[in-house]
Amino acid sequence: MTHQQKTNIIKKEILASYANLKAKHPVLKYQNFIGFTIFIICLLLSGGLGYLWFVDLLPAWALILGNAFLFGVLHELEHDLIHFIYFKNNRIVHNIMLLFIWLARPLTLNPWFRRVLHYHHHKFSGTLHDVEERGVTNGEKWSLKRLLFTPDLVIGNALRVFGLFRDIKREVDNGNLKFKAAKKLKLSGVFGLIPFTILSHVILYAFFTDIFFDLLHDKYQFSWVMPELIKDILAWCNPIIYIILLPNLLRQFCLHFITSNLHYFGDVEQGNVIEQTQILTVWWTYPFQLFCFFFGWTHAIHHFVVNETFYIRHIARKKAHEVMRKHGVRFNDLGTFRRANRYHEV
């Protein structure tokens, strides 16, 4: 069979399993209600954890872990919203949800600009101009640099932007990408960082620099310390840092680590969905998976059936995994770390 025939079979069987699941549990058909309920619950729980930490009833580590998990759920919800799965016919509610999820996860890209990159990702996954995945280190050789900048969308992308734009230009010159699409990708990637993503990263840079300088000062009488003005700003930002930014830093590292290694890059056959992703369920990824709502278990399913909710994917994943494995989708291909995410041996 061709890869397209295999893809069609996988898609057909997954859709059938979804239909059977919804027939058994009719409540699952109310996806707007379910999505909005998840949205409200996550925000309320996150705010509650933040309050308990603020009044010294919850240690900082518990706040960071708890909110990282909740923000991981919100990421999945945003991903569904990007595909217009909730409130497609009520753009006010739809956009309010997108806005508040972005405010709860300000280290990430503006979701309206991300939509451009994400739709392009589905059409051209694994190519040189798959900006969304390349922006989170997909396709890079594993090194200390890749590890350090896995969660970083500002300095990390500043270091790779010239190479990325050079590759995009070459793809345009070779006729693999239209000039208009290339321009839209570049603008979305840059303007999507403004203002919250850049500001949030700068606050974290200052926060960790302050901790580092204070450590050197206390241990080794290092003379450099952050200016008092910066320290005052950081003190004012302390609730934002602990309730929002540090949990998101953990969540974003885990998500980017998982997604950049479940997607293949560079030698994926154009249009071959089977070669685009793998399923990652190996035990040692569980700590990472926990803070991106087990993204590695289900994201490859999404490449075959795009317009379905994240919770349906999770509930019905067993049947999806069965048919995907049968027709050649890889599971726990750890060689991807050695091959810089190439599908084939280099």
From TrEMBL:
Check the record and name the InterPro entries matching this protein.
FA_desaturase_dom
**Domain Fatty acid desaturase: start-end pairs:** 60-333
Could you mention a single GO BP entry for this protein?
Answer: lipid metabolic process
Top-rank lineage group of the source organism: Bacteria
**Where does the sequence pass through the membrane?**
33-54, 89-107, 187-213, 233-250
Keyword set for this entry? Answer: Membrane, Transmembrane, Transmembrane helix
Can you say what this protein is called? Fatty acid desaturase
Q: Which organism is it from?
A: Sphingobacterium alimentarium
